[in-house]
Protein backbone atom coordinates (compact mmCIF):
# COMPACT_ATOMS: atom_id res chain seq x y z
CA UNK A 1 0.00 0.00 0.00
CA UNK A 2 1.11 3.53 -0.73
CA UNK A 3 2.22 5.49 2.30
CA UNK A 4 0.01 8.15 3.74
CA UNK A 5 1.13 11.73 3.20
CA UNK A 6 0.02 15.27 3.85
CA UNK A 7 -1.40 15.66 0.35
CA UNK A 8 -3.85 12.89 1.15
CA UNK A 9 -4.78 14.63 4.40
CA UNK A 10 -5.33 17.89 2.57
CA UNK A 11 -7.63 16.15 0.16
CA UNK A 12 -9.43 14.18 2.85
CA UNK A 13 -10.24 17.25 4.94
CA UNK A 14 -10.77 19.50 1.92
CA UNK A 15 -8.23 22.06 3.14
CA UNK A 16 -7.44 23.77 -0.19
CA UNK A 17 -11.15 24.18 -0.89
CA UNK A 18 -12.28 25.86 2.33
CA UNK A 19 -9.07 27.47 3.59
CA UNK A 20 -9.43 30.69 1.61
CA UNK A 21 -5.67 30.38 1.16
CA UNK A 22 -5.04 30.95 4.90
CA UNK A 23 -4.37 27.36 5.94
CA UNK A 24 -2.14 24.62 4.64
CA UNK A 25 -0.47 21.44 5.85
CA UNK A 26 3.30 21.29 6.33
CA UNK A 27 5.39 18.20 5.57
CA UNK A 28 5.78 17.76 9.32
CA UNK A 29 2.06 16.96 9.43
CA UNK A 30 1.19 20.20 11.20
CA UNK A 31 -1.62 22.51 10.20
CA UNK A 32 -0.19 25.91 9.30
CA UNK A 33 -1.78 29.32 9.30
CA UNK A 34 -0.67 31.99 6.85
CA UNK A 35 -0.83 35.75 7.46
CA UNK A 36 -2.30 36.40 4.02
CA UNK A 37 -3.79 34.13 1.39
CA UNK A 38 -1.09 32.05 -0.22
CA UNK A 39 1.82 33.55 1.73
CA UNK A 40 3.43 30.23 2.53
CA UNK A 41 6.78 31.84 3.31
CA UNK A 42 5.42 33.09 6.63
CA UNK A 43 3.37 30.05 7.60
CA UNK A 44 3.15 29.35 11.32
CA UNK A 45 2.36 26.01 12.91
CA UNK A 46 -0.90 26.10 14.83
CA UNK A 47 0.27 23.41 17.21
CA UNK A 48 3.35 25.53 17.96
CA UNK A 49 1.01 28.37 18.86
CA UNK A 50 -1.05 25.98 21.00
CA UNK A 51 2.13 24.90 22.76
CA UNK A 52 3.02 28.51 23.48
CA UNK A 53 -0.46 29.12 24.82
CA UNK A 54 -0.14 26.22 27.24
CA UNK A 55 3.33 27.32 28.34
CA UNK A 56 1.77 30.63 29.28
CA UNK A 57 -0.64 28.85 31.56
CA UNK A 58 -3.83 28.88 29.53
CA UNK A 59 -5.69 25.61 29.16
CA UNK A 60 -7.65 24.22 26.23
CA UNK A 61 -10.16 24.97 24.84
CA UNK A 62 -8.75 28.17 23.38
CA UNK A 63 -10.20 30.46 20.78
CA UNK A 64 -7.26 31.52 18.64
CA UNK A 65 -7.45 34.70 16.62
CA UNK A 66 -4.87 35.44 13.96
CA UNK A 67 -5.18 39.16 13.41
CA UNK A 68 -3.32 39.22 10.09
CA UNK A 69 -6.22 37.31 8.56
CA UNK A 70 -8.72 39.94 9.61
CA UNK A 71 -6.46 42.60 8.14
CA UNK A 72 -6.18 40.60 4.91
CA UNK A 73 -9.92 39.99 4.62
CA UNK A 74 -10.70 43.70 5.02
CA UNK A 75 -8.12 44.48 2.36
CA UNK A 76 -9.49 41.83 0.02
CA UNK A 77 -13.07 43.11 0.21
CA UNK A 78 -12.08 46.73 -0.33
CA UNK A 79 -9.43 46.09 -2.97
CA UNK A 80 -11.65 43.75 -4.95
CA UNK A 81 -14.43 46.31 -5.08
CA UNK A 82 -11.98 49.04 -6.08
CA UNK A 83 -10.41 46.94 -8.76
CA UNK A 84 -13.74 45.90 -10.23
CA UNK A 85 -14.86 49.53 -10.24
CA UNK A 86 -11.69 50.54 -12.08
CA UNK A 87 -12.05 47.79 -14.62
CA UNK A 88 -15.69 48.48 -15.35
CA UNK A 89 -15.37 52.25 -15.31
CA UNK A 90 -17.63 52.78 -12.33
CA UNK A 91 -17.96 56.44 -11.39
CA UNK A 92 -18.78 56.04 -7.73
CA UNK A 93 -16.83 54.45 -4.90
CA UNK A 94 -17.09 51.68 -2.31
CA UNK A 95 -17.38 51.92 1.47
CA UNK A 96 -17.61 49.00 3.85
CA UNK A 97 -19.50 49.06 7.15
CA UNK A 98 -18.84 46.23 9.59
CA UNK A 99 -22.04 45.09 11.35
CA UNK A 100 -21.17 44.92 15.02
CA UNK A 101 -23.62 42.12 15.76
CA UNK A 102 -21.49 39.58 13.86
CA UNK A 103 -18.84 39.71 16.57
CA UNK A 104 -19.24 42.50 19.12
CA UNK A 105 -16.14 41.82 21.19
CA UNK A 106 -14.36 45.11 21.80
CA UNK A 107 -11.07 43.72 20.59
CA UNK A 108 -12.65 42.64 17.31
CA UNK A 109 -14.40 45.94 16.60
CA UNK A 110 -11.26 47.89 17.52
CA UNK A 111 -9.13 45.77 15.22
CA UNK A 112 -11.59 46.28 12.39
CA UNK A 113 -11.56 50.05 12.71
CA UNK A 114 -7.78 49.94 12.99
CA UNK A 115 -7.11 47.69 9.98
CA UNK A 116 -9.99 49.26 8.05
CA UNK A 117 -8.86 52.85 8.49
CA UNK A 118 -6.89 52.89 5.24
CA UNK A 119 -10.13 52.09 3.41
CA UNK A 120 -12.39 54.20 5.64
CA UNK A 121 -14.14 51.03 6.63
CA UNK A 122 -17.04 52.03 8.88
CA UNK A 123 -19.45 50.34 11.28
CA UNK A 124 -23.08 49.31 11.31
CA UNK A 125 -25.08 49.39 14.54
CA UNK A 126 -28.38 47.60 14.99
CA UNK A 127 -29.19 48.69 18.53
CA UNK A 128 -28.44 51.43 21.05
CA UNK A 129 -25.74 49.41 22.71
CA UNK A 130 -24.02 48.80 19.38
CA UNK A 131 -24.31 52.47 18.45
CA UNK A 132 -22.72 53.47 21.73
CA UNK A 133 -19.94 50.95 21.12
CA UNK A 134 -19.45 52.34 17.61
CA UNK A 135 -19.41 56.01 18.66
CA UNK A 136 -16.78 55.27 21.28
CA UNK A 137 -14.61 53.34 18.85
CA UNK A 138 -14.81 55.26 15.56
CA UNK A 139 -12.63 58.25 14.78
CA UNK A 140 -12.56 58.37 10.99
CA UNK A 141 -15.03 60.95 9.69
CA UNK A 142 -14.73 59.69 6.12
CA UNK A 143 -16.19 56.33 7.00
CA UNK A 144 -19.89 55.75 7.49
CA UNK A 145 -21.76 54.84 10.63
CA UNK A 146 -24.99 53.12 9.66
CA UNK A 147 -27.83 52.94 12.21
CA UNK A 148 -30.26 50.09 11.61
CA UNK A 149 -32.74 48.50 13.96
CA UNK A 150 -35.70 49.81 15.94
CA UNK A 151 -35.08 53.33 17.08
CA UNK A 152 -36.50 55.02 20.12
CA UNK A 153 -35.93 58.67 20.98
CA UNK A 154 -32.68 57.97 22.77
CA UNK A 155 -31.27 55.99 19.82
CA UNK A 156 -32.27 58.77 17.41
CA UNK A 157 -30.77 61.48 19.61
CA UNK A 158 -27.48 59.63 19.84
CA UNK A 159 -27.40 59.27 16.05
CA UNK A 160 -28.12 62.96 15.59
CA UNK A 161 -25.38 63.92 18.03
CA UNK A 162 -23.01 61.70 16.06
CA UNK A 163 -23.91 63.67 12.93
CA UNK A 164 -23.44 66.94 14.81
CA UNK A 165 -19.92 66.10 15.88
CA UNK A 166 -19.03 65.28 12.30
CA UNK A 167 -19.62 61.58 11.72
CA UNK A 168 -21.33 60.47 8.53
CA UNK A 169 -24.00 58.84 10.62
CA UNK A 170 -26.89 57.54 8.52
CA UNK A 171 -30.18 56.89 10.27
CA UNK A 172 -31.98 54.16 8.39
CA UNK A 173 -35.76 54.31 8.56
CA UNK A 174 -36.86 50.74 9.14
CA UNK A 175 -40.43 51.33 10.31
CA UNK A 176 -42.94 53.88 9.00
CA UNK A 177 -43.39 55.45 12.43
CA UNK A 178 -39.72 56.20 12.88
CA UNK A 179 -39.62 59.02 10.38
CA UNK A 180 -41.91 61.52 12.17
CA UNK A 181 -39.98 60.93 15.37
CA UNK A 182 -36.62 61.48 13.63
CA UNK A 183 -37.90 64.73 12.09
CA UNK A 184 -39.20 65.92 15.43
CA UNK A 185 -35.94 65.14 17.24
CA UNK A 186 -33.78 66.71 14.56
CA UNK A 187 -35.74 69.97 14.87
CA UNK A 188 -35.47 69.84 18.63
CA UNK A 189 -31.71 69.24 18.56
CA UNK A 190 -31.03 71.45 15.56
CA UNK A 191 -29.26 68.66 13.72
CA UNK A 192 -29.90 67.86 10.10
CA UNK A 193 -30.18 64.10 9.73
CA UNK A 194 -28.70 61.97 6.98
CA UNK A 195 -31.44 59.50 6.21
CA UNK A 196 -31.56 56.09 4.67
CA UNK A 197 -34.61 54.04 3.91
CA UNK A 198 -34.72 50.29 4.31
CA UNK A 199 -36.77 48.73 1.58
CA UNK A 200 -38.57 45.43 1.38
CA UNK A 201 -37.58 43.57 -1.73
CA UNK A 202 -39.73 41.14 -3.62
CA UNK A 203 -36.53 39.28 -4.51
CA UNK A 204 -36.44 36.47 -2.03
CA UNK A 205 -33.31 34.79 -0.84
CA UNK A 206 -33.37 31.12 0.02
CA UNK A 207 -31.73 29.63 3.05
CA UNK A 208 -31.97 30.13 6.74
CA UNK A 209 -32.35 33.85 6.88
CA UNK A 210 -34.72 34.15 3.96
CA UNK A 211 -37.34 35.94 6.00
CA UNK A 212 -35.13 38.95 6.64
CA UNK A 213 -35.52 39.89 2.97
CA UNK A 214 -38.63 39.55 0.85
CA UNK A 215 -42.19 40.78 1.14
CA UNK A 216 -42.81 39.11 4.48
CA UNK A 217 -39.67 40.49 6.07
CA UNK A 218 -40.22 42.14 9.41
CA UNK A 219 -37.97 45.06 8.55
CA UNK A 220 -38.24 47.72 5.94
CA UNK A 221 -40.84 49.74 4.10
CA UNK A 222 -42.94 48.52 1.23
CA UNK A 223 -43.28 50.79 -1.83
CA UNK A 224 -46.43 52.39 -0.55
CA UNK A 225 -44.73 53.31 2.72
CA UNK A 226 -41.70 54.58 0.82
CA UNK A 227 -43.90 56.98 -1.12
CA UNK A 228 -45.52 58.22 2.09
CA UNK A 229 -42.08 58.85 3.57
CA UNK A 230 -41.06 60.81 0.47
CA UNK A 231 -44.22 62.91 0.68
CA UNK A 232 -43.63 63.68 4.34
CA UNK A 233 -40.03 64.69 3.69
CA UNK A 234 -41.06 66.87 0.72
CA UNK A 235 -43.70 68.52 2.86
CA UNK A 236 -41.05 69.34 5.48
CA UNK A 237 -38.64 70.55 2.81
CA UNK A 238 -36.19 67.83 3.81
CA UNK A 239 -36.01 65.60 0.74
CA UNK A 240 -32.31 66.41 0.51
CA UNK A 241 -31.80 64.48 3.75
CA UNK A 242 -32.83 61.24 2.11
CA UNK A 243 -29.48 60.01 0.84
CA UNK A 244 -29.45 56.26 1.06
CA UNK A 245 -31.36 53.19 -0.07
CA UNK A 246 -30.73 50.17 2.10
CA UNK A 247 -31.71 46.53 2.13
CA UNK A 248 -30.46 43.34 3.68
CA UNK A 249 -31.35 40.06 2.03
CA UNK A 250 -30.14 37.89 4.86
CA UNK A 251 -26.85 36.30 5.81
CA UNK A 252 -24.88 33.58 3.97
CA UNK A 253 -26.56 34.05 0.58
CA UNK A 254 -25.24 31.02 -1.27
CA UNK A 255 -26.58 31.86 -4.69
CA UNK A 256 -25.17 34.76 -6.72
CA UNK A 257 -28.35 35.02 -8.79
CA UNK A 258 -30.28 36.11 -5.72
CA UNK A 259 -27.69 38.77 -4.98
CA UNK A 260 -27.82 40.09 -8.51
CA UNK A 261 -31.59 40.26 -8.81
CA UNK A 262 -31.84 42.08 -5.47
CA UNK A 263 -29.36 44.72 -6.69
CA UNK A 264 -31.44 45.27 -9.81
CA UNK A 265 -34.61 45.69 -7.82
CA UNK A 266 -32.99 48.07 -5.33
CA UNK A 267 -31.62 50.17 -8.18
CA UNK A 268 -35.13 50.68 -9.48
CA UNK A 269 -36.14 52.06 -6.09
CA UNK A 270 -32.98 54.18 -6.02
CA UNK A 271 -33.78 55.60 -9.45
CA UNK A 272 -37.37 56.20 -8.41
CA UNK A 273 -36.28 58.17 -5.34
CA UNK A 274 -33.85 60.22 -7.42
CA UNK A 275 -36.70 61.07 -9.75
CA UNK A 276 -38.79 62.12 -6.76
CA UNK A 277 -36.09 64.61 -5.87
CA UNK A 278 -34.31 62.82 -3.05
CA UNK A 279 -30.58 63.51 -2.81
CA UNK A 280 -29.69 59.83 -2.98
CA UNK A 281 -25.96 59.16 -3.06
CA UNK A 282 -25.49 55.82 -1.24
CA UNK A 283 -26.74 52.37 -2.09
CA UNK A 284 -26.33 49.99 0.86
CA UNK A 285 -26.71 46.31 0.00
CA UNK A 286 -26.46 45.02 3.56
CA UNK A 287 -24.67 41.76 4.32
CA UNK A 288 -25.01 38.34 2.77
CA UNK A 289 -21.55 37.76 1.28
CA UNK A 290 -21.21 34.08 2.13
CA UNK A 291 -18.34 31.95 3.38
CA UNK A 292 -17.59 28.64 1.68
CA UNK A 293 -17.42 26.56 4.86
CA UNK A 294 -17.47 23.21 3.11
CA UNK A 295 -15.44 24.18 0.08
CA UNK A 296 -17.99 22.83 -2.36
CA UNK A 297 -18.43 26.13 -4.25
CA UNK A 298 -22.12 25.29 -4.55
CA UNK A 299 -25.35 26.97 -3.55
CA UNK A 300 -25.54 24.55 -0.61
CA UNK A 301 -26.31 26.35 2.66
CA UNK A 302 -22.76 26.06 4.03
CA UNK A 303 -21.20 27.21 0.79
CA UNK A 304 -21.47 29.80 -1.98
CA UNK A 305 -21.46 29.44 -5.74
CA UNK A 306 -19.38 32.54 -6.43
CA UNK A 307 -16.00 34.07 -5.65
CA UNK A 308 -15.54 37.43 -3.98
CA UNK A 309 -14.41 38.68 -7.36
CA UNK A 310 -17.68 37.67 -8.96
CA UNK A 311 -19.59 39.13 -6.05
CA UNK A 312 -18.05 42.57 -6.55
CA UNK A 313 -18.16 42.47 -10.35
CA UNK A 314 -21.76 41.29 -10.51
CA UNK A 315 -22.91 43.97 -8.09
CA UNK A 316 -21.18 46.77 -9.96
CA UNK A 317 -22.39 45.53 -13.32
CA UNK A 318 -25.94 45.29 -12.04
CA UNK A 319 -25.83 48.84 -10.65
CA UNK A 320 -24.32 50.21 -13.84
CA UNK A 321 -26.79 48.53 -16.19
CA UNK A 322 -29.75 49.58 -14.06
CA UNK A 323 -28.76 53.19 -13.53
CA UNK A 324 -27.00 54.02 -16.82
CA UNK A 325 -30.22 53.20 -18.60
CA UNK A 326 -32.05 55.97 -16.77
CA UNK A 327 -29.09 58.33 -16.69
CA UNK A 328 -28.54 58.41 -12.95
CA UNK A 329 -25.11 59.00 -11.39
CA UNK A 330 -23.39 55.99 -9.88
CA UNK A 331 -23.85 55.90 -6.10
CA UNK A 332 -21.33 55.11 -3.41
CA UNK A 333 -21.87 51.42 -2.88
CA UNK A 334 -21.91 50.29 0.74
CA UNK A 335 -21.93 46.70 1.92
CA UNK A 336 -22.31 45.51 5.48
CA UNK A 337 -20.31 42.31 5.20
CA UNK A 338 -19.72 40.78 8.57
CA UNK A 339 -19.42 37.03 8.21
CA UNK A 340 -16.97 37.19 5.32
CA UNK A 341 -14.70 39.61 7.20
CA UNK A 342 -14.39 37.83 10.52
CA UNK A 343 -15.15 34.12 9.96
CA UNK A 344 -11.65 33.14 8.82
CA UNK A 345 -9.61 34.67 11.59
CA UNK A 346 -10.80 32.58 14.55
CA UNK A 347 -10.06 28.94 15.23
CA UNK A 348 -11.39 26.98 18.17
CA UNK A 349 -8.72 24.63 19.51
CA UNK A 350 -9.68 21.76 21.79
CA UNK A 351 -8.25 18.51 23.05
CA UNK A 352 -9.73 15.02 22.97
CA UNK A 353 -10.32 13.62 26.44
CA UNK A 354 -11.51 10.09 25.87
CA UNK A 355 -12.86 7.65 23.31
CA UNK A 356 -15.69 5.14 23.20
CA UNK A 357 -15.02 2.40 20.70
CA UNK A 358 -17.56 0.29 18.91
CA UNK A 359 -15.07 -2.25 17.68
CA UNK A 360 -16.16 -5.55 19.24
CA UNK A 361 -13.86 -7.68 21.39
CA UNK A 362 -12.72 -10.96 19.82
CA UNK A 363 -15.32 -13.71 20.13
CA UNK A 364 -14.70 -16.84 22.19
CA UNK A 365 -13.51 -19.87 20.19
CA UNK A 366 -16.50 -21.96 21.17
CA UNK A 367 -19.93 -20.93 22.28
CA UNK A 368 -20.92 -22.26 25.70
CA UNK A 369 -22.97 -25.48 25.53
CA UNK A 370 -26.04 -24.05 27.19
CA UNK A 371 -26.46 -21.26 24.62
CA UNK A 372 -30.01 -20.47 23.58
CA UNK A 373 -30.89 -21.15 19.94
CA UNK A 374 -30.99 -17.46 19.00
CA UNK A 375 -27.35 -17.02 19.85
CA UNK A 376 -26.41 -20.09 17.84
CA UNK A 377 -28.35 -18.69 14.87
CA UNK A 378 -26.45 -15.45 15.19
CA UNK A 379 -23.15 -17.28 15.16
CA UNK A 380 -24.25 -19.19 12.08
CA UNK A 381 -25.16 -15.95 10.35
CA UNK A 382 -21.70 -14.64 11.05
CA UNK A 383 -20.00 -17.79 9.81
CA UNK A 384 -21.98 -17.93 6.60
CA UNK A 385 -21.47 -14.27 5.79
CA UNK A 386 -20.06 -13.61 2.31
CA UNK A 387 -20.05 -10.66 -0.03
CA UNK A 388 -23.02 -12.24 -1.81
CA UNK A 389 -25.44 -12.29 1.07
CA UNK A 390 -24.67 -9.02 2.86
CA UNK A 391 -28.18 -7.60 2.91
CA UNK A 392 -29.74 -10.92 3.87
CA UNK A 393 -27.23 -11.46 6.68
CA UNK A 394 -27.84 -7.93 7.84
CA UNK A 395 -31.58 -8.59 8.06
CA UNK A 396 -31.02 -11.88 9.87
CA UNK A 397 -28.60 -10.56 12.43
CA UNK A 398 -30.93 -7.68 13.28
CA UNK A 399 -33.81 -10.09 13.66
CA UNK A 400 -31.93 -12.45 16.00
CA UNK A 401 -30.45 -9.61 17.97
CA UNK A 402 -33.97 -8.28 18.61
CA UNK A 403 -35.13 -11.73 19.64
CA UNK A 404 -32.24 -12.08 22.04
CA UNK A 405 -33.12 -8.73 23.60
CA UNK A 406 -36.72 -9.82 23.88
CA UNK A 407 -35.73 -13.01 25.67
CA UNK A 408 -33.58 -11.00 28.03
CA UNK A 409 -36.56 -8.79 28.88
CA UNK A 410 -38.47 -11.87 29.89
CA UNK A 411 -35.68 -13.36 31.91
CA UNK A 412 -35.11 -16.22 29.45
CA UNK A 413 -31.43 -15.41 28.86
CA UNK A 414 -29.05 -14.00 31.42
CA UNK A 415 -26.79 -10.97 31.41
CA UNK A 416 -23.70 -12.84 30.16
CA UNK A 417 -25.64 -14.45 27.35
CA UNK A 418 -27.06 -11.12 26.30
CA UNK A 419 -23.54 -9.61 26.30
CA UNK A 420 -22.39 -12.46 24.07
CA UNK A 421 -25.30 -11.85 21.67
CA UNK A 422 -24.39 -8.18 21.40
CA UNK A 423 -20.76 -9.08 20.80
CA UNK A 424 -21.68 -11.40 17.93
CA UNK A 425 -24.01 -8.75 16.58
CA UNK A 426 -21.35 -6.03 16.46
CA UNK A 427 -18.77 -8.41 15.02
CA UNK A 428 -21.18 -9.30 12.23
CA UNK A 429 -22.11 -5.68 11.57
CA UNK A 430 -18.45 -4.67 11.42
CA UNK A 431 -17.74 -7.47 8.97
CA UNK A 432 -20.72 -6.51 6.80
CA UNK A 433 -19.55 -2.92 6.74
CA UNK A 434 -16.06 -3.94 5.67
CA UNK A 435 -17.33 -6.26 2.94
CA UNK A 436 -19.81 -3.70 1.63
CA UNK A 437 -16.91 -1.41 0.72
CA UNK A 438 -15.97 -3.88 -1.99
CA UNK A 439 -19.41 -3.59 -3.59
CA UNK A 440 -20.14 -1.19 -6.42
CA UNK A 441 -23.68 -0.50 -5.31
CA UNK A 442 -24.49 -0.42 -1.62
CA UNK A 443 -27.96 -0.03 -0.17
CA UNK A 444 -28.42 3.08 1.99
CA UNK A 445 -28.86 0.86 5.05
CA UNK A 446 -25.48 -0.77 4.56
CA UNK A 447 -23.83 2.48 3.57
CA UNK A 448 -24.95 3.92 6.89
CA UNK A 449 -23.09 1.26 8.87
CA UNK A 450 -19.86 3.22 8.78
CA UNK A 451 -21.59 5.94 10.76
CA UNK A 452 -23.22 3.45 13.11
CA UNK A 453 -19.82 1.91 13.80
CA UNK A 454 -17.95 5.18 14.25
CA UNK A 455 -16.25 5.83 17.56
CA UNK A 456 -17.15 8.68 19.87
CA UNK A 457 -14.34 11.11 20.63
CA UNK A 458 -15.08 13.13 23.76
CA UNK A 459 -13.80 16.64 23.31
CA UNK A 460 -13.06 19.43 25.74
CA UNK A 461 -15.49 22.11 24.59
CA UNK A 462 -19.18 22.96 24.56
CA UNK A 463 -21.07 23.04 21.27
CA UNK A 464 -23.58 25.41 22.87
CA UNK A 465 -20.92 27.87 23.99
CA UNK A 466 -18.46 27.74 21.10
CA UNK A 467 -20.30 26.47 18.00
CA UNK A 468 -23.94 27.38 18.66
CA UNK A 469 -24.87 27.44 14.96
CA UNK A 470 -23.74 23.83 14.60
CA UNK A 471 -26.42 22.93 17.11
CA UNK A 472 -29.11 25.47 16.29
CA UNK A 473 -29.20 25.51 12.50
CA UNK A 474 -27.00 22.61 11.44
CA UNK A 475 -24.24 24.91 10.20
CA UNK A 476 -21.15 22.99 9.09
CA UNK A 477 -17.66 24.08 10.06
CA UNK A 478 -14.41 22.54 8.87
CA UNK A 479 -13.12 20.47 11.80
CA UNK A 480 -9.89 18.46 11.70
CA UNK A 481 -6.75 17.51 13.61
CA UNK A 482 -4.08 20.22 13.68
CA UNK A 483 -1.17 17.77 13.80
CA UNK A 484 -0.23 14.17 12.85
CA UNK A 485 -1.48 14.91 9.34
CA UNK A 486 1.35 12.85 7.87
CA UNK A 487 -0.17 9.79 9.55
CA UNK A 488 -3.19 8.02 8.19
CA UNK A 489 -6.35 8.66 10.19
CA UNK A 490 -7.67 5.17 10.73
CA UNK A 491 -10.67 5.84 12.94
CA UNK A 492 -14.08 7.13 11.96
CA UNK A 493 -15.54 9.21 14.76
CA UNK A 494 -18.23 11.61 15.80
CA UNK A 495 -17.47 14.26 18.42
CA UNK A 496 -19.18 14.63 21.77
CA UNK A 497 -18.66 17.71 23.91
CA UNK A 498 -18.48 17.83 27.71
CA UNK A 499 -21.98 19.11 28.35
CA UNK A 500 -24.21 16.28 29.47
CA UNK A 501 -26.77 17.09 26.81
CA UNK A 502 -27.41 14.50 24.10
CA UNK A 503 -27.45 17.37 21.58
CA UNK A 504 -23.91 18.26 22.68
CA UNK A 505 -22.29 16.52 19.75
CA UNK A 506 -21.08 17.06 16.23
CA UNK A 507 -21.99 14.32 13.81
CA UNK A 508 -22.18 16.28 10.56
CA UNK A 509 -19.01 17.28 8.80
CA UNK A 510 -18.10 19.05 5.63
CA UNK A 511 -17.84 17.07 2.44
CA UNK A 512 -17.65 18.22 -1.14
CA UNK A 513 -20.48 15.91 -2.06
CA UNK A 514 -22.96 16.71 0.68
CA UNK A 515 -22.56 15.99 4.36
CA UNK A 516 -20.26 13.44 5.96
CA UNK A 517 -21.63 11.67 9.01
CA UNK A 518 -18.29 10.96 10.69
CA UNK A 519 -14.82 12.42 10.77
CA UNK A 520 -11.68 10.41 10.02
CA UNK A 521 -9.32 10.82 13.00
CA UNK A 522 -6.15 9.29 14.40
CA UNK A 523 -5.90 6.73 17.16
CA UNK A 524 -5.03 8.41 20.42
CA UNK A 525 -1.50 7.80 21.60
CA UNK A 526 -1.44 7.12 25.31
CA UNK A 527 -0.09 10.27 26.82
CA UNK A 528 0.10 12.61 23.84
CA UNK A 529 -2.49 15.30 23.61
CA UNK A 530 -4.58 15.11 20.45
CA UNK A 531 -5.72 18.53 19.31
CA UNK A 532 -8.52 19.36 16.94
CA UNK A 533 -9.41 22.70 15.39
CA UNK A 534 -12.80 24.02 14.37
CA UNK A 535 -12.08 26.55 11.65
CA UNK A 536 -13.87 29.64 10.29
CA UNK A 537 -15.64 30.25 13.60
CA UNK A 538 -15.09 34.03 13.86
CA UNK A 539 -18.61 35.06 12.83
CA UNK A 540 -21.68 34.88 15.09
CA UNK A 541 -20.41 32.05 17.31
CA UNK A 542 -19.01 34.02 20.23
CA UNK A 543 -21.96 35.91 21.62
CA UNK A 544 -24.69 33.59 20.42
CA UNK A 545 -23.09 30.95 22.61
CA UNK A 546 -24.73 30.20 25.92
CA UNK A 547 -23.96 28.86 29.34
CA UNK A 548 -25.42 25.39 28.93
CA UNK A 549 -24.23 23.28 31.88
CA UNK A 550 -22.45 26.43 33.07
CA UNK A 551 -19.57 25.99 30.67
CA UNK A 552 -18.39 29.55 30.15
CA UNK A 553 -16.41 31.62 27.70
CA UNK A 554 -13.21 29.96 26.57
CA UNK A 555 -9.76 31.48 26.83
CA UNK A 556 -9.07 33.76 23.87
CA UNK A 557 -5.62 34.34 22.47
CA UNK A 558 -4.74 36.73 19.65
CA UNK A 559 -1.51 36.34 17.74
CA UNK A 560 0.15 38.38 15.06
CA UNK A 561 2.44 36.83 12.47
CA UNK A 562 5.47 39.05 11.96
CA UNK A 563 7.37 39.91 8.80
CA UNK A 564 10.10 37.41 9.62
CA UNK A 565 7.58 34.58 9.92
CA UNK A 566 7.68 34.45 13.71
CA UNK A 567 4.61 35.19 15.75
CA UNK A 568 3.84 37.18 18.87
CA UNK A 569 1.03 37.02 21.37
CA UNK A 570 -0.74 40.36 21.20
CA UNK A 571 -3.52 39.64 23.60
CA UNK A 572 -4.79 36.97 25.93
CA UNK A 573 -8.14 36.95 27.60
CA UNK A 574 -8.81 34.41 30.28
CA UNK A 575 -12.10 32.59 29.92
CA UNK A 576 -14.79 32.54 32.57
CA UNK A 577 -14.03 31.07 35.96
CA UNK A 578 -16.57 28.94 37.77
CA UNK A 579 -17.30 31.94 40.02
CA UNK A 580 -17.93 34.07 36.91
CA UNK A 581 -20.50 31.75 35.39
CA UNK A 582 -22.18 31.23 38.74
CA UNK A 583 -22.58 34.96 39.16
CA UNK A 584 -24.15 35.16 35.65
CA UNK A 585 -26.97 33.02 36.98
CA UNK A 586 -27.26 35.18 40.09
CA UNK A 587 -25.24 33.20 42.58
CA UNK A 588 -23.08 35.13 44.97
CA UNK A 589 -19.81 33.14 44.98
CA UNK A 590 -18.74 34.65 48.32
CA UNK A 591 -21.96 33.59 49.94
CA UNK A 592 -21.64 30.12 48.44
CA UNK A 593 -18.14 29.84 49.80
CA UNK A 594 -19.14 30.94 53.30
CA UNK A 595 -22.09 28.64 53.34
CA UNK A 596 -19.92 25.72 52.26
CA UNK A 597 -17.36 26.56 54.93
CA UNK A 598 -20.09 26.33 57.55
CA UNK A 599 -21.29 23.00 56.20
CA UNK A 600 -17.73 21.70 56.42
CA UNK A 601 -17.46 23.05 59.96
CA UNK A 602 -20.55 21.14 61.00
CA UNK A 603 -18.91 18.01 59.59
CA UNK A 604 -15.91 18.69 61.86
CA UNK A 605 -18.18 19.08 64.87
CA UNK A 606 -19.94 15.84 64.02
CA UNK A 607 -16.49 14.25 63.72
CA UNK A 608 -17.04 13.13 60.14
CA UNK A 609 -13.82 14.92 59.16
CA UNK A 610 -10.90 16.40 61.06
CA UNK A 611 -10.11 20.13 61.13
CA UNK A 612 -7.11 19.43 58.86
CA UNK A 613 -9.31 17.62 56.39
CA UNK A 614 -11.69 20.56 56.46
CA UNK A 615 -8.86 22.87 55.50
CA UNK A 616 -8.03 20.70 52.53
CA UNK A 617 -11.65 20.38 51.42
CA UNK A 618 -12.35 24.10 51.75
CA UNK A 619 -9.20 24.89 49.77
CA UNK A 620 -10.29 22.55 46.99
CA UNK A 621 -13.69 24.23 46.88
CA UNK A 622 -12.13 27.65 46.65
CA UNK A 623 -9.72 26.57 43.92
CA UNK A 624 -12.68 25.14 42.04
CA UNK A 625 -14.43 28.49 42.21
CA UNK A 626 -11.38 30.25 40.80
CA UNK A 627 -10.79 27.62 38.11
CA UNK A 628 -11.69 27.23 34.44
CA UNK A 629 -15.10 25.75 33.67
CA UNK A 630 -13.62 23.24 31.22
CA UNK A 631 -11.71 20.04 31.82
CA UNK A 632 -8.26 20.88 33.21
CA UNK A 633 -5.24 18.60 33.14
C1 LIG B 1 -26.72 40.69 10.19
C2 LIG B 1 -26.69 41.82 9.31
C3 LIG B 1 -25.58 42.02 8.47
C4 LIG B 1 -24.44 41.06 8.37
O1 LIG B 1 -24.61 40.09 7.40
P1 LIG B 1 -23.42 39.10 6.97
O2 LIG B 1 -24.11 38.13 6.13
O3 LIG B 1 -22.85 38.53 8.21
O4 LIG B 1 -22.40 39.87 6.24
C5 LIG B 1 -25.56 43.17 7.71
N1 LIG B 1 -26.57 44.05 7.76
C6 LIG B 1 -27.65 43.88 8.54
C7 LIG B 1 -28.73 44.89 8.56
C8 LIG B 1 -27.76 42.76 9.34
O5 LIG B 1 -28.82 42.58 10.10
TrEMBL record:
Gene3D superfamilies, alphabetized: 1.10.287.3440, 1.20.58.930, Alanine racemase (3.20.20.10), Lyase, Ornithine Decarboxylase, Chain A, domain 1 (2.40.37.10)
InterPro entries: Ala_racemase/Decarboxylase_C (IPR009006), Arg_decarb_HB (IPR040634), Arg_decarbox_C (IPR041128), Arg_decrbxlase (IPR002985), De-COase2_N (IPR022644), De-COase2_pyr-phos_BS (IPR022653), Orn/DAP/Arg_de-COase (IPR000183), PLP-binding_barrel (IPR029066)
Keyword Magnesium: yes
Positions of the Arginine decarboxylase C-terminal helical domain: 578-631
Any Pfam family hit: Orn_Arg_deC_N
NCBIfam families: PRK05354.1 (NF003763), speA (TIGR01273)
UniProt function note: Catalyzes the biosynthesis of agmatine from arginine.
Protein name: Arginine decarboxylase
Organism: Desulfofustis limnaeus
